Amino acid sequence: MLVQTTLAERVEGAIALNPYFSSRHLRFETEDGRVVLSGVVGTFFQKQMAQEIVRRIEGVREIDNCLEVKWRAPAVAEFEARLAE
Fold this sequence. Notes:
The chain is α+β, with helices and mostly antiparallel strands.
């Protein structure tokens, strides 16, 4: 039996399997072959990787990459992590 998956399920699966970004910071919406990516990533590379992953998914006709890049210096991230402890 062939299992049919929706575009949203295929996008969600591809994002979950990608090691370049955390899926909890990445959101998406799908409608009629259009995928809108939103959320925050740490680098421009991650923004591009998210788009390239989605581009390869069957049924995607258009991508609107609205991901925001918020670069954080490693020293700042380490300092904030220590404050949270």
